[in-house]
């Protein structure tokens, strides 16, 4: 018995490893990022630094330019004592440089090394400030700028703990993105479920051309989302879009350009495109559940005198409950994480009117290269998705394997 248990674990080990590598590890990595002010566009925050570090590459490059500029500006210095100061400073820089030969990248430094670097910086800063006040140095402005890079070689810890989570609680843009995501998810999933159920009931009927109907209905779902978004973008175009002009002609909108240029119009447009795209997917999941309901139950209800409405609510819906759970769960989670449709169709605009959590997280992480705060947004999404999944299981059934 014990041997069989070990063999069972060995069989499941590859699956566990795949889940750990492709699912758990990215989540864990994102969770770690949330505790750091991690920004790729800032040299002092481009890594995860719990303790203070030193960028030896930046230091070597900065001191090289300081020596070069000082040597170029030396002929402009007329006072002999000031010339001696420059020579002594260059020699001092070379002395410190020799002490750090062989060290590269970002490494830890001890207190003595840090003291030498700070002392050198103060000495260079004092000398350069004195010379720029006395003389018109050709590289005076460049020396002032390069001094900042020299000081930035010392990298402080960017560990911030829970500050990112505290910041997100007061982030108004985050609140707007969350509301947009909830509105998009609730409305789109509601209409997809109603229309998908009707479509599944039609496809489940034994009618002529049933195969053609099923194949045709799945075409929108088979189209790549980015392609579908581009297609709907042309249809919504205010000047030549068929859908935009049709809505204007029937009085649904006052101006055809409002579909993508107003907040309400853009949200309506994205929801309509998503309903058209994913209703067949919802229908496909519900159709699988309908086909698992025994026909004998419908025959028995017919003999007992039940009408179609009673049959639907007493037999079809209760037995379809597990399939409804799966369909709603998958579609709700997918809609809550929507990215490609909105990104291609509206880009989150106008004015952030269609910016969802995924769009906001993408902009923070890749447009601003702020991976620390972007990871906080991702973790908030992860928690909300987990809550949604728990609610669905609790409301519609805690065990999908159980049959009503």
From TrEMBL:
Concerning PROSITE patterns, the annotation shows: ABC_TM1
Q: Which GO terms describe its biological process?
A: transmembrane transport
Q: Pfam families under this entry?
A: BPD_transp_1 (PF00528)
Q: Where in the cell is it found?
A: Cell membrane
Question: Its domain of life?
Answer: Bacteria
Q: Is-annotated flag, keyword Transit peptide?
A: no
Q: What is its main location?
A: membrane
Q: Which residues cross the membrane?
A: 6-36, 177-202, 222-247, 371-393
Keyword field: Cell membrane, Membrane, Transmembrane, Transmembrane helix, Transport
Query: What topology does it adopt in the membrane?
Result: Multi-pass membrane protein
Q: List the record's Gene Ontology CC terms alphabetically.
A: plasma membrane
Matches recorded under InterPro entries: MetI-like, MetI-like_sf
Which segments constitute the ABC transmembrane type-1 domain? 178-392
Give the family, as the similarity comment puts it: Belongs to the binding-protein-dependent transport system permease family.
- What is the recorded name of this protein? ABC transporter permease
State the species of origin: Tepidibacillus decaturensis
């Amino acid at each position: 018995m014990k041997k069989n248990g070990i063999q069972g674990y060995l069989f499941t080990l590859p699956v566990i490893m795949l889940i750990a590598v492709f699912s758990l590890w990215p989540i864990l990595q994102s969770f770690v990022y949330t505790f750091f002010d991690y920004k790729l566009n800032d040299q002092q925050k481009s890594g995860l630094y719990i303790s203070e570090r030193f960028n030896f590459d930046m230091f070597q490059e900065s001191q090289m330019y300081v020596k070069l500029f000082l040597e170029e500006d030396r002929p402009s210095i007329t006072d002999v004592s000031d010339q001696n100061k420059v020579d002594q400073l260059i020699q001092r820089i070379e002395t410190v440089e020799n002490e750090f030969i062989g060290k590269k990248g970002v490494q830890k430094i001890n207190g003595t090394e840090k003291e030498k670097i700070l002392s050198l910086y103060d000495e260079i800063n004092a000398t350069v400030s004195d010379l720029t006040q006395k003389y018109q140095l050709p590289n005076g402005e460049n020396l002032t700028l390069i001094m900042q890079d020299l000081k930035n070689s010392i990298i402080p810890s960017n560990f911030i703990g829970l500050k990112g989570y505290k910041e997100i609680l007061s982030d108004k843009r985050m609140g707007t993105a969350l509301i947009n995501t909830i509105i998009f998810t609730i409305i789109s999933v509601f209409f997809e479920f109603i229309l998908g159920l009707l479509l599944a009931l039609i496809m489940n009927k034994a009618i002529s051309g049933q195969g053609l109907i099923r194949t045709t209905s799945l075409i929108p779902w088979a189209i790549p989302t980015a392609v579908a978004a581009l297609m709907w973008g042309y249809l919504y175009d205010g000047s030549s879009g068929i859908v935009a002009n049709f809505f204007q002609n029937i009085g649904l909108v006052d101006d055809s350009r409002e579909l993508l240029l107003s907040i309400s119009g853009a949200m309506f447009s994205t929801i309509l495109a998503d309903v058209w795209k994913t209703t067949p997917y919802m229908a496909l999941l519900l159709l699988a559940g309908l086909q698992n309901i025994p026909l004998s139950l419908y025959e028995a209800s017919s003999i007992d005198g039940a009408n179609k409405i009673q049959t639907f609510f007493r037999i079809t819906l209760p037995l379809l409950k597990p399939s409804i759970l799966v369909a709603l769960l998958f579609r709700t989670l997918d809609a809550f994480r929507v990215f490609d449709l909105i990104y291609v169709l509206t880009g989150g605009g106008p004015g952030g009117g269609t910016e969802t959590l995924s769009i906001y997280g993408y902009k923070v992480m890749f447009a601003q290269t702020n991976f620390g705060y972007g990871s906080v947004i991702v973790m908030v999404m992860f928690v909300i998705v987990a809550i949604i999944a728990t609610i669905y299981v609790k409301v519609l059934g805690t065990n999908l394997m159980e049959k009503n």
